[in-house]
Amino acid sequence: MILECDLTTTQAVGSDVGAASGKTEHNKNILEIHNLSLSFGGVTALRDVSFRVPEQGITTVIGPNGAGKTSMFNCISGFYQPQQGSIHYQGKPLTGVKPPARAALGLARTFQNIALFRGMTVLDNIKLGAHVHMKSGLLASLAYFGPARREEMAVRREVERHIIDFLEIDHIRRQPVASLPYGLQKRVELARALAMRPKVLMLDEPVAGMNREEKEDMARFILDIREEWDVTILMVEHDMAMVMDISDHIAVLNFGQVIAEGLPADVQNNAEVIEAYLGTRDMDSLRHKLNPESEVA
Question: Could you give all domains of the chain from N- to C-terminal order, each with its CATH number?
């Protein structure tokens, strides 16, 4: 019921990258979710969900398992069609916009379970992300001649010079994905999402299953993407130490409803959030969850 909080392995993230996070609210919202409701038969996944995603910040959605976080991501991506409510991206509704078109508009994502082509190389997997922006038709691409070939080579140069170097994976670019350890596969999936040239990068549990060093690297990459690429980050994550260290804005889901939204410090001290996570309003217990080395009276 309670989210995994492997905080002992991520406390170093706070000392290394926590200071780089702005921790300030932004005025302009690039993404707005209004009164979203989603049901599967008699099961309600989302109930009247509303929250905002400030531009060029890191917004994290947290909540106990089964709270509706991934369902909300799937609604934003266009994989699920909510029965009620709307999603506005850059001030315009996404109603009726198909998933490939949403990707072309700048909404890119990674998945909770790695969704890579395991038999393909790292480079080929990453290049697939850029195909949403390619103009060559099917026949020209199959012929691999003239404009199609030039476009393909330009994509490869962009991927190799910017994304692969940025994520420090040049040494594995020709390896098949299936041969890589889990942490590097997560990094390749992030690279593929960056190849889509996103304006909003949605990360579904980006450090799940990683060791301490891998978590620190991923936290650093996320902060650098926000700062150097001017990309807005929308993240679902269980690792509360990382969430509190790098997030500018947090929304909390519980049983498909938003129970809190705001700055990390405000959310951390919200009584409803404490009750959702611990089944109690014991503030000291929540602080101990967030910092296991602290003393609880």
Answer: 1-106+198-297 (3.40.50.300), 115-197 (no CATH)
